[in-house]
Amino acid sequence: MTSLKVENDHSGDGAVGEGYQRGLGARQIQMIAIGGAIGTGLFLGAGKAISKAGPSLILAYAIAGLVIFFIMRALGELLMYRPVSGSFSEYAREFIGPFAGFVTGWTYWLFWVVTGITEVTAAATYMTYWWNIPQWVSALVFTVVLYGANLISVKLFGELEFWFSMIKVTAIIGMILICAGILTIGFSDAGDTASVTHLWADGGFFPKGIGGTVVTLQIVMFAFMAVELVGVTAGESKDPETTLPKAINTVPWRIAVFYVGALIMILSVVPWTHFKPGVSPFVAAFEQMGLGIGAAIVNFVVLTAALSSCNSGMYSTGRMLRDLALNGQGPRLFTRLTKSGTPLVGTTFSAALMLVGVWINYQWPGEAFDKVVSFATISGMWAWIMILISQIRYRARADRGELPQSTFKAPGAPFTSWFALLFIFGVIVMMGIDAEARVSLYCAPLWALLLGVSYLVLRARDPENAAFKR
Q1: Where are the alpha helices (DSSP H) in 193-333?
Q2: Are 123 and 357 contacting, i.e. CB atoms less than 8 angstroms apart?
Q3: Burial of 293 by CB count in 10 Å (0-12 exposed, 13-18 middle, 19+ buried)?
Q4: In which band, very low, low, confident or very high, does the pLDDT at 17 lie, cut at 50, 70 and 90?
Q5: DSSP secondary structure string, 193-207?
Q6: Within 13 Å of residue 267, how many CA atoms lie on the same side as its CB?
């Protein structure tokens, strides 16, 4: 039986790190930050994006990556002002209002639940590469195993994520080197046809037009979801003032190497017309090269990538639910921690909801990924919007001398933050135009209505709680 202790901090003063163990070291934070940006969106979603945009997808990743860097530097400025575990919700609560904190906390929790479903769906899809077993069986097994792993200490979670990320990073660098060898030496079946001219010779750099590139932005932005996870680790980092800025400053080269660089190499070796939705471009590339064992290895790597992201989701959901509970904006039951500092109840509740992914895989095994990815995108972007607005308001108050200045200021802010906000709203407009992504915009008002009613009920029950006052 796992013993529990209930923390006494319900003051809502933002000290939500109380009770957690600072078990995440510098190397673990670095690899969590790197691995957070390498997941299903790159390994699986890129296949669909390539078929829609062709080589111009490289440009889409580069532009979106710049926006992500602006978002992360805005988050870094806030984290150095006040590093807390429930960062997005806490900052929204402080700089926008209690309702914004309530919506942000619950929406980010929902994002990771939906993302967990997405990732376990991807993992089940990868399993069919080796064995002809129903997707829902694999999805069920993965969900149960990862839930068990998340009941262990945060130090072990960090160690698992370190090695998960190491596998992903090593694989992508290895793939880039192999492609470089094919282009320069000419070995493998693709050696005679590999050329950088594939980037513009097969219908041009924009074979589907600029419009085709623009409509892939929601897929591109989904690929970057989870880069903000380092903010959630703030309450459990051994030295957040040092490790978090270093992790955030790695964003540009992460994007340059793992997204832009990888796609340039793949699309130079294999023409973009050879890729199709639902198939990992990495696996497809190795098959086109005639390197069958390489495809099997990459499939294993992308399987670990999906499981890594789902594991991070379970970690994040428990922390976010506890932050809400400590601020009186969620059931007090979620404040409970195990002796090792794990939010058992919140993690269990979230994992139970992730089992919905098993049902989705049972009902629509061929469409499961696309059905959940768009809703994950819109819910995840809400956290980015709140980060940017909070940073803009914080900077204004700090410049007036009302709050201490951050030791890690976002360069170019608030102009870069405003630019990132406009970009995100542009992506949302594109999602409304895209019939496949539009379903998420239908769901968003229903979720907003549910949150609004829930907030009014909670405030009516406890009007004196500081969490419901400006």
Answers
A1: 198-201, 209-214, 217-223, 229-232, 240-248, 251-255, 262-269, 281-289, 292-326
A2: no
A3: exposed
A4: very low
A5: T--TTHHHHTT-SST
A6: 29
Sign of CA dihedral 319, 325, 331, 336: positive
Query: How would you class 400 by CB atoms within 10 Å of its CB: exposed for 0-12, middle for 13-18, buried for 19 or more?
Result: exposed
Q: Name the pLDDT band for 21 (thresholds 50, 70, 90).
A: low
Q: Is 337 helix (H, G, I), strand (E, B) or coil?
A: strand
Q: What is the pTM of this model?
A: 0.86
414: preceding bond cis by omega (within 30 degrees): yes
Average pLDDT over residues 50-56: 90
* Largest distance between two CA atoms of the chain: 73
Please, is 177 exposed, middle or buried when counting C-beta atoms within 10 Å of its C-beta (0-12, 13-18, 19+)?
A: exposed
Measured distance CA(161)–CA(171) in Å, rounded: 15
Q: Specify the residue for token string 């529990």.
A: 4
Residue 460 to residue 55: CA distance in whole angstroms:
54
- Mean pLDDT for the chain overall: 81
Mean pLDDT of 56-62: 93
